[in-house]
Amino acid sequence: MIHARGLARTFEGRVRGRQKEQVKAVAGVDIDVAEGEIVGFLGPNGAGKTTTLRMLTTLLKPTAGTATVAGFDVATQSQEVRRSIGYVSQSGSTSPEARAGEEIMDHGMLYGISQKQAETRGRELFDQLDLEGLWNREPRAMSGGQRRRLDIAMGLVHDPTLVFLDEPTTGLDPQARANLWTHISDLRTKRGATIFLTTHYLDEADALCDRILVIDHGVIVASDTPDALKRQISGDLVELVVTDAAQARAAAELLDRIADTEVDTDTTSVSARVRGAGHEIPGLIRALDSAGIALESIEVRRPTLDDVFLTLTGRSLREDA
Amino acid sequence: MAVVPSRATRGSFWRETYIVFRRQLRMALRNPAWVIIGLVQPILYLVLFGPLLEPLAGQLGAQNAYTLFVPGLLVQLGLFGALFAGFGLIAEWRAGVIEAERVTPASRTALLLGRILRDVLQLFVQGIVLIGLAFLFGLTGSVIGMVFGLILTVLLGAACAAASNALALTTKSEDVMAPVLNSIALPVLLLSGILLPMTIGPQWLQVVSDFMPTKYIVNAIRELFTGDFFTITTMWGVIWTIVLFAAGLYVGTRTFRKENA
């Protein structure tokens, strides 16, 4: 469905006055997405996610490389690409003061379908996406989750075979997110659509994606299933906080016996990765107790996609670049 | 793939323009505050400023104060109503509407033209109301000339709306756009002879105003209103209108096409 080779985009940046600088937003990426796949695209802000997405959706011209999307070349057959894909951008797609039903009909008509067809399709999508009764509602009077589903409906009005979703659940509450995941996976099971989405969340990738591409500094650094990526991180992160440095040293020694990685010590806290931490913790606590170490707190964290990212790139996903 | 635009794609161009136009018009009519404000302003000028000009008409070289004054107000409408049209576009861009429209196969020119047509229609209606009302105040002159004057106004408005949309899409910020437009608008207003003809001013002011294309348009519309169709003044006004119209559309479509394959 998507085949990109060496896809790159360089922007002309300006650093202090006249000096010009070439900024490589995307420095040559290869992407392959098969029909029916749900693929997640992961990376921090400024890594090149949205730029790549905009090149694949014909909104931005690549400065190098090639890409075919839904069987058409993005550079020479942009019209055909546009007809075959749906794009749900992060910034929304409707005017707050317009009416939802009219927005979706106009959008459908811009794809060349008749007004009647656009209305039929729109009403169908409203039913499928739990937007019944909101046909005449203004987007500004909708909840965040409803507006997101309206954006998705807008992206689907022309029945695309490939759907791009940019951060589909950012800013939604947990229920709305879970609800949206159901709708997104329905796109594949009920309509056979291929889905390419960007995300920040591990649970989202776990719930939805067959495969994840990790992008950093404009380069794809990993491409695997969420499970395989998590397996690269050996174990859960265990962090112990004690009262003083001497106790921390003693605790580090005990933690080292069960740890799979080097133990990090930071004055009064020690941490390491432990495989199957749930089974190891009771023994660790007994050992600490009999060694006379007073534990202030203990924390166990499951590996997150953020940890995957940290392992792959040496920096956190949440640091705003 | 057809290289030469076929009849079908030309047909879809006008259809797309109509879809965009209809959407814009619907939203404008649903929130008519701006339409009403745009209409009230020239009426206030007509009612509150027109009577002051009446006794001066003779000194200004006009038989009828309103054939002098109404063309100026028309151009003012055309310039200022349309120059600020871009603010609506920034709001739409922020809501993601522009991006969503650009990812459809619709013609980028149609996306711009549909929006300009709404501004043009609004301007046309405002112009008719203004001229109609001016008759009540004592406007006399050539009706055919007034129709031509209105056409020039509408073309000028289209140019301004296109330029304003281009500026909006380039700056994407009201905070940048407002000072830019205001710094253009005031000298244009003062140097085009919109309120008073430049001929009553001192030499240096007249020379400066010679560089203002809109002055020629105002003068041409004044002549058209009095029924003088084939004069040098009219010709210059028509030429400048066409030049500005073409330039506005060119800049506008270029901006709308930019940054996509």
Automatic annotation (TrEMBL), chain B:
Membrane spanning residue stretches: 32-53, 73-95, 116-137, 143-168, 180-200, 229-251
Domain of life: Bacteria
InterPro entries noted in UniProt: ABC2_TM (IPR013525), ABC2_TM_bact-type (IPR047817), ABC_2_transport (IPR000412), Nod_factor_ABC_transporter (IPR051784)
Cell location: Cell membrane; Membrane
Coiled coil: none
Membrane topology: Multi-pass membrane protein
Domain ABC transmembrane type-2 positions: 33-259
Keywords: Antibiotic resistance, Cell membrane, Membrane, Transmembrane, Transmembrane helix, Transport
Any matching Pfam family: ABC2_membrane
Stated family: Belongs to the ABC-2 integral membrane protein family.
Protein name listed in UniProt: Transport permease protein
Organism: Herbiconiux daphne
Origin organism lineage: Bacteria, Bacillati, Actinomycetota, Actinomycetes, Micrococcales
